[in-house]
Specification:
Elements: E1 13-15, E2 23-31, E3 35-42, E4 48-55, H1 56-60, E5 63-64, H2 75-90, H3 97-100, H4 108-116, E6 125-128, H5 136-149, E7 156-160, H6 165-176, E8 181-183, H7 185-190, E9 202-206, H8 207-210, H9 216-221, E10 225-230, H10 246-256, E11 258-264, H11 273-280, H12 291-299, E12 306-307, E13 319-320, E14 326-327, E15 335-342, H13 346-368, H14 373-391, H15 393-413, H16 428-433, H17 436-446, H18 455-478, H19 482-493, E16 504-507, H20 511-523, E17 528-531, H21 546-554, E18 560-563, E19 578-581, H22 589-595, E20 607-614, H23 618-637, H24 646-649, H25 654-663, H26 669-679
Parallel strand pairs: 6-11, 6-12, 7-9, 7-10, 8-9, 10-11, 15-20, 16-18, 16-19, 17-18, 19-20
Antiparallel strand pairs: 1-2, 1-5, 2-3, 3-4, 13-14
Helix pairs in contact: 4-5, 5-6, 11-12, 13-14, 13-18, 14-15, 15-18, 15-20, 23-26, 25-26
C-alpha cells in the first residue's frame, strides 16, 4: 500500500531503505508540489535529521510502521504506569500534594512559609530565619518535594555544619523519602579523573569541607545544581566587602551555581545593617545592595526575600472549645530566665585580680605595639584567659599550663624571639563562627604568642605564669569554688537530687570546664553525659558519639547533659526544660541558640533558664547589665520575643570589643556600663 503526503503526520514512524533505523516525524510536515519536507529523529539513536525532502518516488518505497493494539501486557504494570502519570500531574490539581506524600505533622507557620512565600516565586531565592525549634528542616524538605513534583529540581546540594550532616540525611529519608549521599573529604581524595560532586544527584556536605582551597575548584567545576540549601547560614556572613570569609566566598559561588537558593538560620542579624545587607547579597548581588531599602522593606514586612517569625506569634490549628467556638493556642511554652549571682572571695578573688593584672598589662603593651601580628595575637589570647577565668579556675589553669609549655619550648629553641612566625589571627566574626573544637585548636596555636623580644623578658613572663598556675592550683585544692557551690545548691533547690527523672542541660564554653564539671557531677552521684566538638556525630548505638549522648539523655540513661557550643546547633532536647548557663557567652546570639535546644516544638513545660555570673567582676557586671536590659525589654513587651532578636538588640561582638578595650586601658569599667546603657537598643 503506497504512502501519500497526507499520511506523513507528526509522530508517525516511517521505515525505508534510505534510513538506517525507523524514523519518527517531529513537528508538522510542509507539503509541496509532489514532495513533503519533514524533520525526523531516529527511534533507536535519537539522531536528528532536519529538513528531509521526501518525493513521490521516496514515498513509494516508504512504509508507515503500524502497531496493532494488543492486550497481552501485565495489568499491574499498566496500572502502575497510570499511577505514575497521575502523580506527576497531581500538583496541578492539589497544591499541597508534596505534603500528602510526606511523613510530617505540618504546622500553620510551616505551610504558610512554603506555600504562601517560597513557592510563589518562579526562582526561589530566600532567607528563612524563623526561631530555633520552629521546624526549618521540615519547611526545606517540603520545598524540595514540591519543586521535584513540578519537575524543576533534580540535582540538590545541602550544605550544613559537619555535625548536622547525618541528621539532615536521616530527616530527608525518614520524612520525605529522599535519599542523600553525604560527601566527605575522604570521598574526594580517593577519586581520580572524576568530579565527585557530579557522582550523586542529591548530596549533603560540610560547609567547612566545601570552602577549602583544595576542594573549592572541584565545586566550581561541578555541574550546576537546581536547588542549594544552606543550614546555619549565618556562618556565611562577612564583616564587610573588603573582608570576606572563606565561607562567604563559598556562598557567593553557590549563588551563581544554582537556580533555587534557600538559606536557613535562626540568628540572621548581628546588629549591623551593612553586614546584614552583605549577607542578603548571597541571594541576589544586585537587588540587596541598598541597606536602607532593605531595612525599610523589612520594617513593613514586605521583603520578598526574607521571612522571620518569632515563637511568640506561632499558633497551632484552631480547635473546638466547650462553648462552641474555635481557638488557636500558642505552639511554644514560656522561657523564664533566672540569674544566679555570686561573689568571688578569698583565694578566688586574689586569683581573679592577679589574672586581670597580667591580662591588662600584656593587653596594654599589645595596644602600644599597633597592628603588629604578634601584638594582635597577644591581645587575642589575653581576652581568652579572662573568659576562661569567668568559666572555671580549672579551665584557666589548663590554658596557662599549655602557654607555659609553649613559652618554655620557645625559650629553649628560639634564637631571635622577635622573628617567631605567628599564625593568622581570626577576626571576631570568624572566631564566633568556628565550632568549639576549631576555636580550641586555634587557641593552642596562639598560646606561644609573646611580646618578649629578649630571653630575660620571656623568663620574667614565665615566672609570672608559674605564680598564676600555683594560685589556681590552690583554689582547686581548696575544693570550695563559690560558683560550683552555687551550682550544687541550685540543683538541690530545683530538685535534681530528689527526682532522678528530672533532666538538666548544662552549657559551658570550654572543653576543660566540661571535663571538670563531668567529674564533679559524677562524684555527686549523678548520671552524666557530654557533647563537645571533639566528638563525631556517629549513630544512636555508637558509644562516645553525639547521637549516642543525645539518645541516652532522651532515654534518661543520663540525667545531666554537659555540653559546649557543639550542642548549640541542630540538637533537639525538648525532653528537658531546665537549662543552666554555667558561663554566659560574650556573643549574646549564642544565648538564643542554647535556649533553642530545649525551647522547641514538642516542649510541654515552661523552660527555666539559669544564668551564672560573678557580680563583683568586671565581666560579670557587664553580662549582668546585658541580662537586666533584656529582662526590662521582656517585661515591657510582656513576652519572650526579645530573646529571639537578641542579636539585633546588641551587635554580636560588641561585648568582647568593649572588654578588650578595657583590658588595653582604653575604657574604664564605668565606661563599659555606660556604653551598654546607650547601645542596647530597645
Amino acid at each position: 500500500m503506497s504512502v501519500s503526503t497526507a499520511d506523513i503526520l507528526d509522530g508517525v514512524v516511517i521505515i525505508g531503505s534510505q534510513f538506517s533505523e525507523p524514523m519518527r516525524v517531529v513537528g508538522n510536515p510542509t507539503a509541496g508540489d509532489g514532495f513533503v519536507l519533514v524533520n525526523l529523529v531516529g527511534t533507536r539513536t535519537s539522531n536528528f535529521r532536519g529538513g528531509v525532502t521526501l518525493t513521490k518516488t521516496d514515498l513509494g518505497s516508504i512504509q508507515i510502521e503500524r502497531k496493532e493494539a494488543v492486550f497481552g501486557g501485565k495489568p499491574r504494570l499498566f496500572k502502575l504506569g497510570l499511577e505514575a502519570l497521575r502523580i506527576s500531574l497531581a500538583q496541578e490539581y492539589d497544591p499541597y500534594f508534596g505534603l500528602s506524600i510526606s511523613r510530617v505533622d505540618p504546622l500553620p507557620h510551616q505551610l504558610d512559609a512554603v506555600y504562601n512565600h517560597l513557592l510563589k516565586s518562579a526562582r526561589v531565592r530566600f532567607l528563612l530565619a524563623d526561631d530555633a525549634g520552629a521546624g526549618k528542616t521540615i519547611m526545606a524538605g517540603l520545598l524540595l518535594k514540591e519543586l521535584k513534583l513540578r519537575g524543576l529540581v533534580d540535582r540538590v546540594l545541602i550544605i550544613c555544619p559537619a555535625n548536622l550532616a547525618f541528621q539532615w540525611q536521616r530527616e530527608m529519608a525518614d520524612r520525605f523519602q529522599e535519599q542523600f549521599h553525604i560527601l566527605r573529604g575522604g570521598d574526594l581524595r580517593v577519586q581520580y579523573g572524576v568530579n565527585g560532586w557530579n557522582q550523586h544527584p542529591q548530596i549533603i556536605t560540610s560547609m567547612d569541607l566545601a570552602k577549602r582551597d583544595e576542594i573549592l575548584p572541584s565545586v566550581r567545576q561541578a555541574d550546576d545544581w537546581d536547588l542549594v540549601i544552606v543550614d546555619e547560614a549565618h556562618r556565611m556572613s562577612a564583616r564587610d566587602s573588603e573582608h570576606k570569609s572563606e565561607r562567604y566566598r563559598l556562598g557567593e559561588l553557590m549563588r551563581d551555581k544554582t537556580a533555587h537558593f534557600l538559606l536557613l538560620t535562626a540568628t540572621p542579624h548581628k546588629g549591623d545593617p551593612a553586614n546584614f545587607s552583605l549577607f542578603l547579597q548571597l541571594l541576589d548581588q544586585e537587588a540587596y545592595a541598598d541597606v536602607k531599602s532593605i531595612h525599610d522593606a523589612m520594617e513593613r514586612r514586605e521583603a520578598a526575600c526574607y521571612l522571620r517569625r518569632t515563637k511568640e506569634v506561632m499558633l497551632n490549628f484552631p480547635k473546638p472549645q466547650a462553648d462552641g467556638t474555635w481557638k488557636a493556642v500558642k505552639l511554644f511554652k514560656k522561657r523564664i530566665p533566672h540569674t544566679v549571682a555570686f561573689c568571688l572571695e578569698g583565694d578566688e578573688m586574689d586569683l581573679y585580680r592577679a589574672v586581670t593584672h597580667y591580662v591588662q598589662r600584656q593587653s596594654a603593651r599589645a595596644a602600644e605595639s599597633g597592628d603588629d601580628r604578634r601584638a594582635r595575637a597577644v591581645g587575642f589570647i589575653m581576652a581568652m584567659y579572662q573568659r576562661r577565668m569567668a568559666s572555671s579556675t580549672h579551665s584557666l589553669k589548663q590554658s596557662l599550663l599549655r602557654r607555659q609549655k609553649a613559652l618554655k619550648h620557645l625559650l629553649e629553641t628560639a634564637s631571635q624571639l622577635g622573628d617567631i612566625p605567628m599564625p593568622d589571627i581570626p577576626t571576631e566574626e570568624e572566631w564566633e563562627e568556628m565550632d568549639d573544637a576549631e576555636r580550641e585548636a586555634r587557641e593552642r596555636e596562639l598560646e606561644r604568642a609573646t611580646l618578649a623580644k629578649r630571653k630575660p623578658d620571656l623568663e620574667q613572663e614565665l615566672k609570672e605564669i608559674a605564680e598564676l598556675i600555683a594560685q589556681a592550683q590552690r583554689v582547686e585544692d581548696g575544693d570550695h569554688e563559690i560558683k560550683l557551690s552555687r551550682l550544687k545548691s541550685q540543683m538541690t533547690e530545683q530538685g535534681f537530687f530528689a527526682d532522678r527523672n528530672q533532666r538538666l542541660l548544662l552549657f559551658t564554653e570550654y572543653k576543660d570546664t566540661l571535663d571538670y564539671l563531668v567529674g564533679k557531677l559524677k562524684s555527686w552521684g549523678l548520671t552524666v553525659g557530654q557533647i563537645h566538638g571533639g566528638m563525631k556525630p556517629g549513630s544512636r548505638d555508637e558509644e562516645g558519639s553525639r547521637l549516642f549522648a543525645e539518645r541516652s539523655f532522651w532515654d534518661l540513661k543520663t540525667q545531666v547533659l554537659v555540653a559546649t557550643e557543639a550542642a548549640g546547633e541542630g540538637i533537639n532536647l525538648q525532653c528537658c526544660n531546665y537549662l543552666f548557663n554555667y558561663d554566659i557567652p560574650w556573643n549574646p546570639n549564642r544565648l538564643e541558640q542554647r535556649m533553642g535546644r530545649i525551647h522547641r516544638y514538642g516542649q510541654t513545660k515552661n523552660c527555666l533558664i539559669f544564668n551564672f555570673f560573678a557580680e563583683n567582676t568586671v565581666e560579670g557586671r557587664v553580662l549582668q547589665k546585658l541580662l537586666e536590659k533584656l529582662q526590662a525589654i521582656r517585661d515591657a513587651l510582656d513576652e519572650d520575643s526579645v530573646f529571639n532578636v537578641v542579636g539585633e538588640v546588641i551587635p554580636a561582638n560588641q561585648i568582647e570589643r568593649l572588654l578588650r578595650d578595657f583590658y588595653a586601658g582604653k575604657l574604664s569599667a564605668d565606661d563599659i556600663e555606660a556604653r551598654l546603657e546607650v547601645e542596647v537598643r530597645e
